[in-house]
Amino acid sequence: MYIFADAYEYAVDNVGNLLITLGAFSVVSYVAANVAGLLA
Fold this sequence. Notes:
By secondary structure, this protein is mainly alpha-helical.
């Protein structure tokens, strides 16, 4: 049972990190697009 619990926790951590990374990338892309729009 402990192995499954560890695997589940590991998967949850990975998903959380992935979402944070995607969220940060989305924000950076959004800001970059707005700055490019202002400069254009």
